[in-house]
Specification:
Order of helices and strands: HEHEHEHEEHEEHEHHEEEEEEEEE
Shape: globular
Radius of gyration: 18 Å
CATH class: Alpha Beta
Largest sheet: 6 strands, mixed
Number of strands: 17
Number of domains: 1
CATH architecture: 4-Layer Sandwich
Distance between the termini: 37 Å
Length: about 300
């Protein structure tokens, strides 16, 4: 499994002037339309300028069984790129489709996640020349929310942020919604990072967090909510949503009503010294969708 991102790769990316990060959300392996998932992964493998990919959670189809993890490892080997996997609710939260697993079972699933992808722990940080990247995972053993981060992981995150003076980009399974959206749609409590009060306090107190990159909500980029005000948190343009690559997306509205389909979009993040540019690739026509390109100035403290 090609997971490691080495110092020499950072040097090579510096020479070309940017880092190309492919964002893959909610593949739910093996899941539906496996042949199309294979096509997407093998196509990305041919992109020579990719530095690494981030798998934004829900690598497993339903509940993080050994067979699902075996399938996820098989599919991700097709990338032939370094990648950073982060866990989602379908990797370690459920015992069956919508029944929470016991603390002991969640712990076993988390251990299987680390063993499968050869991880020493469930969270990580990469210090690039101009940005710091944080990879957080769903790992609470007791929370009733789908996407909760454990207190020890949040302790680590806070301590690392204290030392981070460069622009920070966070990768996690779910977004951080502004409180006003939670009041309008209470069901979003299971679709925002938890524990909400502590996560939002950390974001609020650390303005060097420029982007929070997530999956989980299965919004198709053609959905009006994809580029909506919900990407903002307390006036900051923060959330970078990503569509699933499982063929189960929300095309209309913001409610949890999924439609099965065969369309695949992937988003790439291009990191330059002072900005991030996001671009979308539609695998149906094998073309970049230029009118969806966004430019994010990156600010430090």
């Amino acid at each position: 499994m090609k997971r490691q991102f080495q110092a020499e790769q950072i040097s090579a990316a510096e020479k070309k002037g940017y880092f190309h990060i492919v964002l893959l959300a909610d593949p739910h392996f093996p899941g539906r339309i496996t042949s199309k998932k294979e096509e997407v992964l093998k196509r990305i493998a041919t992109w020579e300028d990719v530095d690494f990919a981030v798998i934004l959670g829900d690598l497993c189809e339903i509940s993080g069984t050994p067979s699902e993890y075996k399938s996820a490892a098989h599919f991700l080997d097709m990338l032939q790129k370094p990648f950073f996997p982060i866990s989602g609710n379908h990797d370690c939260f459920f015992s069956n489709y919508f029944s929470p697993a016991s603390p002991s079972d969640r712990e076993k699933k988390i251990q299987l996640f680390m063993e499968t992808f050869q991880l020493p722990q469930m969270f990580d940080e990469i210090e690039l020349p101009n940005q710091n990247l944080f990879f957080l995972s769903v790992d609470s053993l007791t929370s009733h929310y789908y996407t909760a981060i454990s207190e020890p992981q949040l302790d680590w995150f806070e301590e690392r942020l204290k030392k981070c003076k460069k622009p920070a980009i966070v990768f996690f399974h779910s977004p951080v919604f502004d409180e006003k959206f939670l009041k309008m749609a209470p069901f979003l409590e299971n679709y925002t990072a938890q524990p909400y009060s502590r996560v939002t306090k950390i974001v609020r107190e650390n303005p060097q967090i420029n982007l929070w990159v997530s999956g989980h909500i299965h919004l198709a980029p053609t959905n009006p909510f994809f580029f909506h005000d919900s990407t903002f948190f307390e006036g900051r343009r923060l959330n970078l949503f990503n569509c699933d690559i499982s063929g189960m997306s929300i095309f209309v509205g913001a409610g949890p009503s999924l439609e099965n389909h065969g369309k695949f979009w992937t988003q790439s993040l291009f990191l330059y010294p002072d900005k991030a540019i996001s671009r979308f690739f539609y695998h149906g026509t094998e073309q970049w969708i230029e009118n969806w390109t966004r430019n994010f100035p990156l600010k430090n403290i």
